[in-house]
Amino acid sequence: MAHWRSYVNKVLVRTWNIIQVIGIALRIIFKHLRVRVVEIASQAGAATSLLAISLTVNRRLHPCERLLWLLILLLSIYTALMLSDLQRQRFLTSPTVISVDRDYRGWNGSLPAVTLCYYDHIDSFKANEFIQDIWNVSIVDEDYFFFMDFLYAVVNATTSNYADIAKYAEDERFDQIDLHEMIQLIDRPFEQLISSFDANFRVQVQQVMTERGLCYAINAPMAEVLNGKPVIYEQMPLPLSCQYGKQQCYIRMDLYESTGVIDVHSPFEVSATHANIIPLHTSDEITASFKVLETVASKNLRQLSVAQRKCVFNDEETSYLKIYSKSVCLARCRAIMALEMCNCVPFFYQFVDGPSCSPAGFECLLDFKWPIWALHICKCPSTCTEIEYTMQTVKKSSWGVKNNDDGMGSDTATSSFRWDLIPPKVRMRRDVVFSFEDLIVSFGGAMAFFVGVSVMGLVQMCHVILYNVLRDLFKLLRCILAYGRIFRQRYIKPPTISLEATTELPPFEYVN
């Protein structure tokens, strides 16, 4: 029992000695650390000529004065950081500006695009063949006019009057009909005569499916996106353009035995449901002049993100469009809403993937009051370059029926539409007013004004602090190793071999 008590006392004494050694070492370390922090702060203040740091750690000053300098230093740093954060927010949210450009003498502009939608689409002969081939019904059958009414309802349908298609939702004979393909098969092709001020330029005319049905897009390169085929922006044909002030810019379109409605819009947009419509009746001759307000963008604008500039360039690829247009984006949003509501896409949107709507699908859309909800839900950013046309003057006359000798037949009613531009003297320009370089300069200005330090001063301060910290760490490591050796020599005794253990050692072999 006495042996165990003696052993416990020895362990307690050793433990207490170890605790004392550790306590002494910690006191030495903290004392040295406090001194070194003051020295390093003094050196950093001297390296950067920042008097506030030197005064804060100067022991010859009164503690209240040192505290005052510390508060001033902390307040200055806080103010500089706050202003820097405000400048950062400005760079992220509103780094652009829209200014007015008045140097109009050398401007070139694009002529407006026109989307022409005819009133009468159906070719009677093709419609008869379609009804005969699909439903095996001839003109003598009772159901013939029922099917013909269905064809007229589909061909004349738009996003605002598709209710006539929904009437046929209960008839299963229309469930498997591809409505877009049916329109293509029974459509009556029309011919337009397009002329312009530039006789060497061929104005592009293409048939496209829009939200107002099957139409013809004239001088509208962006309309190629509506066909659902892969389109590369760099390979798209350019619209007709002219230099303002040097020539009269116009396009003229002559129609034969046909009437329709006209939508004038930007060449880089497509016809939308909310567009202004100009009716063109038989023997009408309309001449319209348009004012143009163009918004151009500087090259520096591409360096910013879409969230910063709040607009998208036409050739930029978004997550769902290879070529961007605000009207195409809104049309796609309406199509996606229809797909989510009724699991089908109306035939107006050939560029959106999904099952095509049957008459039952249109009845479902009618129950959801589509696309009224899209007016509040669909939001798309504007394009960075915009062209807005406003009708300034319009002259309409009617000449009645006259004879033509150009092979189109006699007693043929002719209508025409001519649109031209009034040379603008003002346009808008999107430009970067607060770039990344300005952001860096604002950071430096705030730090220099409130703290009195520059980039070189910060580098010198970091160098002084890092150099002293690394040197002290190496000193501390050497001290720990030295104290470790002393501790092992003083408190940890080397192992001893007893006489009893030596008796078990093997005998030495002597070699002569």
Write out key terms for the chains shown:
sodium transport; 5-stranded antiparallel sheet; 2 domains; 512 residues; 19% strand; 7-stranded mixed sheet; transport; membrane; 14 helices; alpha+beta
Distance between the termini: 53 Å
Q: Could you name the ranges where pLDDT drops below 50 across 5 or more consecutive residues?
A: 403-411
Structural class: alpha+beta
Task: Kindly estimate the percentage of residues that lie in beta strands according to DSSP.
Answer: 15-25%
Outline type? elongated
Oligomer: single chain
Number of helices: 14
Number of domains: 2
Q: Residue share in helices?
A: 40-55%
Q: What is the element string, with H for helices and E for strands?
A: HHHEEEHHHHEEEEEEEEHEHHHEEEEHHH
Task: Summarize model confidence as the mean pLDDT.
Answer: 83
Strand count, sense and closure of the main sheet?
Answer: 7 strands, mixed
Q: Compute the gyration radius: what is it?
A: 42 Å
Overview of this protein structure:
This protein is an alpha+beta fold and 512 residues long. It folds into two domains: 12-91 and 449-495, no CATH class; 107-121 and 156-432, no CATH class. Helix content is 41%, strand content 19%. The protein has 14 helices and 16 strands. The strands form four sheets. Strands 1, 4, 8, 11, 14, 15 and 16 form a seven-stranded mixed β-sheet that branches. Strands 5-6-3-9-10 form a five-stranded antiparallel β-sheet, with no helix packed on it. A two-stranded antiparallel sheet has the order 2-7. Helix 1 packs antiparallel against helix 13 and helix 3 (63-93) packs antiparallel against helix 12 (436-450). The chain is elongated and about 125 Å long. Residues 403-411 have low confidence and may be disordered. It comes from Drosophila lebanonensis. The chain crosses the membrane at residues 67-84, 439-459. InterPro entries: ENaC (IPR001873). One of its GO terms (molecular function) is ligand-gated sodium channel activity.
